[in-house]
Amino acid sequence: MRRVLIPTDFSENANNALEFAVELYKYEECTFYLLNTIYDSDNVLHSSIYEVYKERSLKELNAIVAKMKEKHPETPLYFEKISTVNLLNEEIEAIVKEKHIDIIIMGTKGASGVQEFLFGSYTVSAMKVAECPLLAIPEGFTFKSPKDIVLATDYDVDFENYHMEVLKGIATKHKAKLHALHVKTDAKPMTFAQQQSKKALEQNFEGMQMSFEEVDDASVQKAIFSYHKIHDIGLLVMIKNKHSFWERLFSGSVIDSIGYKITFPFLVLPSKSVIKETA
Fold first, then answer.
1. CA 257: distance to chain centroid?
2. Angle formed by the axes of helices 12-24 and 47-71, to 10°?
3. How far apart are CA 195 and CA 200, in angstroms?
């Protein structure tokens, strides 16, 4: 059974992420862990106030579960509700380990500053600490089965060390085509190691629809958005690797200079032996 963690603050964005998760995995037996953190350093530390908050939190969680089961009567849905006083990222880390979570799916909040320009600061922070794949659903995105999945890669990774089974599972269930997009930011030819990595990726997805694309662009972000205009990306996938362009995607200078906001789901695949990043 697949285990899916969905943090929620009961907002429209969070509810949208839950709906996306149910639709994405309706062909599989899943347990959805709904997490609501009610941490408030000024109030919740007082036990009497905490009980009031927790009761309200559980009531909201029960209402969401009832609504989802009513909306999807023909889909077997299994939920576990978690209401906690802990900080969000600390709770995510703990639940991923305790419940053996396969994937986190969470909504994003609208941009209101540099730090929240692409995904929202909470989502970016969770991406940095998550030890399992994390799928970010942009604000207002309506679910549609992903038919074109883009894996943006520089091939400077050993794919066997990453959670490729999550990507492969989504592509298989939704009969999607995988586009391996290599953005060349310089004129250097691929190294032997990169060529071997590309070959291993092809072997991993043997028998599935797949294409290998290569574009020249000094900006990975601009290349991705240009590719989206042509192929209508249903899901963007990136490897969380410090030695690739992952870090540059979230660098302040890039966020300041680029005039785009991601409008499609974004899946981040960490290493199976994660080395935590500093915030």
1. 24
2. 50
3. 9
DSSP letters spanning 153-172: --S-S-GGGB-HHHHHHHHH
Domain boundaries, the chain: 2-137, 148-261
40 dihedral zone (left: phi>0; alpha: psi -120 to 50; beta): beta
Shared fold status for 2-137 and 148-261: yes
Its pTM surpasses 0.90: no
Q: What are phi and psi of 106, to 5 degrees?
A: -145, 150
Reported for 90-99, long-range contacts at CB under 8 A and 24+ positions apart, including other chains, are 91/35, 91/37, 92/5, 92/7, 92/35, 92/126, 92/129, 92/130, 93/129, 93/130, 93/131, 95/5, 95/33, 95/35, 96/5, 96/130, 96/131, 96/132, 97/131, 99/3, 99/5, 99/33
* pLDDT tens by residue, 209-233: 999 999 988 777 788 888 888 888 9
Rg, C-alpha atoms of the chain? 19
CATH of domain 148-261: 3.40.50.620
Of 3.30.70.2470, 3.20.20.140, 3.40.50.620, 1.10.10.10, the CATH number of 2-137 is: 3.40.50.620
Residue 257 has pLDDT above 80, yes or no: no
Cα(200)–Cα(187) distance, integer angstroms:
23
